[in-house]
Amino acid sequence: MVTTIKKGTSREKIRLALKKRQVKIKSPDLKKYCGSITLLEDPMKLQKEWRNEWD
Questions:
Q1: Is residue 3 within 8 Å of residue 15, measured between CB atoms?
Q2: Measured CA distances, 13 to 1, 7, 21, 23 (Å)
Q3: pLDDT tens digit string along 2-55?
Q4: Nearest alpha carbon to residue 23 among 38, 8, 1
Q5: Which of 25, 23, 24, 21 is nearest to 1 (CA)?
């Protein structure tokens, strides 16, 4: 979709045109994953190990 704004268009009309163009993005509910895994090791230790795998 294209919105054409001509020279001399008032700010209010520009705002209305942009408001019509806004698309609401539905973000996934990430709260359902909170606490879903349990780690037996320290997370910082695991992260350092994983980062050093390539060396």
A1: no
A2: 17, 12, 13, 18
A3: 888 899 999 999 999 888 888 778 888 888 888 888 889 998 999 999 998 876
A4: 1
A5: 21
Burial 3-34 (b: 16+ CB within 10 A, else e): eeeeeeeeeeeeeeeeeeeeeeeeeeeeeeee
Give the pLDDT confidence score for residue 19 in this predicted structure.
87
Beta carbons of 21 and 3 less than 8 angstroms apart: yes
The Cα 21–Cα 24 span in angstroms is 10
Question: What 3-state class would DSSP assign to 24?
Answer: coil
pLDDT confidence of residue 55 = 66
